[in-house]
């Protein structure tokens, strides 16, 4: 995989088509593979204030669950978020970008992608309706907390993220989402 | 202007008056710890004539106009300095003006005066200040001077800011406990047996998932009023214990069903309530620090209880919870809560030989390094830091310390890396002290803290301190741990930092229990350390909580005093006395206006003496003086006051002196002079004088 260096502490990874295909597999039968490209960037040291983010493109030819509403709605917001988040996590595993995902194997990730990743807090704000079928989105992992297993609770990874979508017509929406990964591999 | 430039005579000056060198005067005063800045070096020329002193004094340009004053304080001070000249070369100590009587200003706004001092009866002097025209500007009927010792001057610099933690007994509530209890998680310390033995009912949930399931099942039934969780045992790593407690705190704050449930975290041996007490549960100490911050961020939600004998503490535990006190230790069935109290400043200690400093190129490390060379007898400094000689300004630091005569080794060593630390220590001669100043902050509230942010702060402080403790086994070597009062107070937004510092405090106890030397200094904020980056709002918040930043010289004076102390944990802080009004963190509550409103031993000394045989009167008077002095000084009790040590040396300032005199007057019916503690400077001498006065008044 090509890795572009555009600064001393910034690493950029263009769309990994094979990985993207794998990440979107669960969506294929439902005809809702919305994420079309994703460039992942690692800025700084992920152990010390560094951030992993994704810059993405989406295409929604038609809604997978409702007749055309004429605008980007919260269900699609959520589906697009999931696809971005899965992809960035998978890429972090594959390229060892950020702990604890850097300690995982891809097989471990695929085994957990659907069963063990939960959204625990979801806030979305629609500033101006988005109408385009093509639009862009970005995600940033602002923090990943690894909680050890104790008598009181099983091990848990909590990922805090921010995301944003926008289209060429000035539409924009933003979100802050926390996701929990249960059953993290003990590598 | 030196004397040489002045006319040999001036009006009113006796012909045989001898000029006195002004540089000698200020040099001599500085030798004794009285350093005058430029604005207060007002003497321009001085002559001695027998017991009299003649002087010219003037304000300098930086003193501003004298117009706003009847008599500018710097000008009066210069005149009073002239009164000190006769005793200047004696070895009896430094004399300071103590009381002024009969002060009259005849003409306002003077910028320059001629001064004449004339001795009177009993060592007092009178002052006459005149203008160039010979007309009177001011007169002082008598200036009473009293000697002060270097010890007293040091104590003045300290202003009794050395605090220690006293665990004070709390009366248990009498009302019965009708609340619904639950025990959560594994009973690591075996306290459920104690609850069962007193017949205290409680539900039991082995995990948060089990508690959650019960809350779902019992839809509509409120959550337990009290949920008790044991902290992990002493073998758990500190970071795991802290992380587990943080997880519980976050779950508690996130789950609205638990909004009315109090979470009680139990430890056993995580705090030392007496100096000689061992402290086996260091991980539990981290929980105390973390939770203190959480308590301040979310009052009324979290409670800390440390028990000595878990199996036998059922009744005391129920009483502790019912008391509503946020932090308690149960010892032999009695409840104790922590309070910071003023503590008598120990005499100064001197370090010698080789001293190792971790964080040696940091702001505090540099200050201490310089101080050890200039004020102690340290000839060899080993400064450890992660970057060593490559740290910013390390070369300049090396040059500066070397120029002061010290041998300096700058060593690149991460003290949290045990192998690296062992190598670094192996290469140097046995140090007289190792000072652990390394540390960093990474602030976040309890809700936002993560395991990583905990680790980031615990590692440089706690890991390094544990390694130092293990590697330094020489019983002569002092391990001085730089902790923070944030751990005792529980600063908001600093749960991780508080946790790290309370572990350091605990480690010092542990070390002493093992027969080694160690002290943890829970510093208040240093103005030149982390305090230099504070915003005005942050500073205002600290001041509102009763604390204020320490200036470097104050901090270093307290460092010297604390080194000589015989305590595992001392808190050298600058108190913002004005803000100590009641609305302060609980641990500071007993410092609140201790000098004025603390319950006074109002019992008349006379009635106490009336019931005693003559042979016991002397001891009773001494006890009474010690009790009263301890109360005025804000100390924990009379045992903190040494009957043979001077009041000034233990921090009694002029207001305290007035208060002591007032209380002793009230208790004895005697009219006591304001100079009482200066003329009888130790409690023993004062008691002896009181007895004499009481006997005289009897006749």
From TrEMBL, chain A:
The keyword Lyase is assigned to this record: yes
Reactions catalysed, as given in the entry: a (3R)-3-[(carboxymethyl)amino]fatty acid + holo-[ACP] + H(+) = a (2E)-enoyl-[ACP] + glycine + H2O
Record keyword tRNA-binding present: no
EC number per UniProt: 4.3.2.11
GO BP, one annotated term: fatty acid metabolic process
Record field: transmembrane: none
Keywords annotated in UniProt: Fatty acid metabolism, Lipid metabolism, Lyase
Domain of life: Bacteria
Pfam families the record matches: FcoT (PF10862)
GO molecular function, one term: lyase activity
Record protein name field: (2E)-enoyl-[ACP] glycyltransferase
Record organism: Streptomyces lonarensis
TrEMBL record, chain B:
InterPro entries, alphabetized: ACP-like_sf (IPR036736), KR_dom (IPR057326), NAD(P)-bd_dom_sf (IPR036291), PKS_dehydratase_sf (IPR042104), PKS_DH_C (IPR049551), PKS_KR (IPR013968), PKS_mFAS_DH (IPR049900), PKS_NRPS_Biosynth_Enz (IPR050091)
Domain Carrier: 619-694
Keywords carried by this UniProt record: Multifunctional enzyme, Phosphopantetheine, Phosphoprotein, Transferase
Biological processes per GO annotation: antibiotic biosynthetic process; fatty acid biosynthetic process
CDD domains on file: KR_3_FAS_SDR_x
GO molecular function: fatty acid synthase activity; phosphopantetheine binding
Gene3D superfamilies linked to this entry: ACP-like (1.10.1200.10), NAD(P)-binding Rossmann-like Domain (3.40.50.720), Polyketide synthase dehydratase (3.10.129.110)
Classification via SMART domains: PKS_KR (SM00822), PKS_PP (SM00823), PKS_PP_betabranch (SM01294)
Keyword Protein biosynthesis: no
Span list, region N-terminal hotdog fold: 1
Region annotation (C-terminal hotdog fold) ranges: 17-154
Residue span(s) of domain PKS/mFAS DH: 1-154
Protein name: SDR family NAD(P)-dependent oxidoreductase
Source organism per UniProt: Streptomyces lonarensis
